[in-house]
Design goal:
With about 180 residues, this protein is mostly beta strands. The protein has one domain: Jelly Rolls (Sandwich). Helix content is about 10%, strand content about 35%. The protein has two helices and 13 strands; from the N terminus they run αββββββββββββαβ. The strands form three sheets. Strands 1, 2, 3, 5, 7, 10 and 13 form a seven-stranded mixed beta sheet that branches. A four-stranded antiparallel beta sheet has the order 8-4-11-12. It is globular, with a radius of gyration of 21 Å.
């Protein structure tokens, strides 16, 4: 803007969007080969891939596979979780929804829930999640049994991969 710009020129941008200033921003990351990351078993036949981590905000993205009938401990996230069901059929024991392929869930911070894959799920359930904050897991008595975050999840992924003799090309884990 110059000193000569009129108030009308400042308040009314060009009607042609092609004349608007172009953003110089590039994607935070592009991972052309997330399939190159191994599935790592973390117990109860549950497997996951660690896709990305934002080391400044603590946000992270996972793909997780759960066999039919799986029930994980009650837990709470201190931040928001967006979950997309790739395949399978699941619910939270505390709710009455049924998630199947294509279902998107937004979990608000600090809600307790117990994920359950239906026993009659026609296939394993695969869930893509983008999470922020801590994951606090509880035992059957409601006592805290674990607190994890983006960094501890990443460390667990790498540790389990090592113990399972799986090679992880860490350059495929997007860090932004």
């Amino acid at each position: 803007m110059t000193d000569e710009a009129t108030e009308e020129e400042v308040l009314l941008p060009s009607a042609n969007p092609l004349e608007l200033p172009q953003s110089k921003l590039q994607p935070a990351f592009v991972n052309p080969n997330a399939d190159g990351l191994p599935w790592v078993e973390i117990g109860l036949d549950i497997m996951f891939k660690y896709l990305s981590v934002n080391e400044s905000t603590g946000a992270y993205t996972l793909l997780t596979k759960y066999p039919p009938g799986t029930q994980i401990p009650t837990h709470r996230h201190s931040g928001t979780v967006f979950a997309y069901t790739v395949q399978g059929k699941w619910t939270y024991l505390e709710d009455d929804f049924v998630a199947t392929a294509g279902c998107v869930i937004c979990e608000m911070p600090n809600s307790n829930h117990t994920l359950k894959v239906f026993d009659d799920s026609p296939e394993e359930m695969i869930l893509l999640t983008h999470q922020t904050g801590d994951l606090i897991s509880f035992d059957e008595d409601g006592e805290i049994m674990a607190i994890d975050d983006a960094q501890t999840h990443l460390a667990q992924y790498l540790m389990f991969a090592k113990y399972q003799d799986l090679e992880v090309d860490e350059s495929l884990i997007a860090r932004y």
